[in-house]
Amino acid sequence: MKYQKIVNEKVQCEICPRNCKLGLNQSGFCKVRKNIQGQIVLESYAYNTGLAIDPVEKKPLYHFYPESKVLSFGTMGCNMGCLFCQNWHITKVKASMDECEYAEPEQIVEIAKAYDCKSVAFTYNDPIIFFEYALETAKLCRQEGIKTIAVTSGYMNSEPAKEFFNLMDGANIDLKGFSEEFYSKNCLAHIKPVLDTIKYVTNETDCFVELTTMLIEGENDQYVEKECEWILNNLGDNVPLHFSAFYPQYKFLDREPTKYETLFKAYETAKNMGIKYVYTGNISSISTSTTYCKNCGKPLIKRDGYEILENNLENGECKFCKTQLDGRF
């Protein structure tokens, strides 16, 4: 396997910035990459915690083939240590393989074709840790004309990131909060590798990127302006930005769910600072889930949750003023 080396008689995994050094039969922080006979082995390869047919809007991707179907799947484990994890039951627990569905990459592609899915999404847990499984699946998808989507924290080393994202057509990258303190305290990670990944994928690949920040009141909602400033300075004003609501999970059970007012304040801040496409998620609001033309301001795609109520696009352009909408259509 690539992205490993011997360090002081241990095998160092070089997929993510944790760079875990593993003794014989030892697993990494992610719980699924293990030193077996001196090689890093992905124990979860082809073992799924579930396959589902979703609307692409659920990822969330609002500018990537709207209304199309996507085959979603994930495995188990994670390289992040988020105390507020919404999928902790598969990311924080070393699940038994007996509890999973087995599907080789070829089977994933056949299922996607059988259900007329335009895309396959690597989601639920972070595809960074099931790197080999995701890549083999992505290569087969490319051969069959099926798009690939990564839903990821972006906590990845630069070399594997190049190989990974050059096989992805779309990505939603989770920017968990715009502060090193938040990342180190609540995610047991660091923000710089995430920002480096976002800049690389947005500016140097053909992968279409949308960003999501789940707002937790009193933890990361105070950094919205700083986050938007970084986005504008490093990515431009056309990257779609989703602010989603937090619900108490895992070790944040004592926290309050995010109020709509908090999401709307972030939405207004981002819009007023000049970001063209801003959305709220995990909460019902048609006005802040709608895509507006960046030129004439008219509603292009009106949404209620994941349902599209109105579509005013013609060949990817605003039907009112003919301005091209940024994205893939």
Quick structural summary:
This protein is of the alpha/beta class. 25% of the residues lie in helices and 25% in strands.
C-alpha termini separation: 36 Å
Secondary structure tally, helices: 8
CATH class placement of the largest domain:
Alpha Beta
List the uncertain runs: none
How many β-strands, per DSSP?
A: 20
CATH topology of the largest domain: TIM Barrel
The structure class reads alpha/beta
Number of domains: 2
- Strand percentage lies at 15-25%
Kindly report the name of the CATH homologous superfamily of the largest domain.
Aldolase class I
Order of strands across the widest beta sheet? 7-8-10-11-12-13-14-15
For the report, how would you describe the main beta sheet? 8 strands, mixed
**Element pattern in H and E:** EEEEEEEEHEHEHEHEHHEHEHEEEEEE
Q: Per CATH, which architecture of the largest domain?
A: Alpha-Beta Barrel
Shape: globular
Helix content: 10-25%
The whole-angstrom Rg is: 20 Å
Please state the average pLDDT score. Answer: 96
Describe the protein:
- Helices cover 25% and strands 25% of the residues.
- The chain has 329 residues and is of the alpha/beta class.
- It has 2 domains: 1-43, no CATH class; 44-254, TIM Barrel (Alpha-Beta Barrel), CATH 3.20.20.
- The strands form 6 sheets. An 8-stranded mixed sheet has the order 7-8-10-11-12-13-14-15. The chain has a 3-stranded antiparallel sheet with strand order 1-2-3, with no helix packed on it. A 3-stranded antiparallel sheet has the order 16-17-18, with no helix packed on it.
- Strand 19 and strand 20 (317-318) form a beta hairpin.
- Helix 7 packs parallel to helix 8.
- The radius of gyration is 20 Å and the shape is globular.
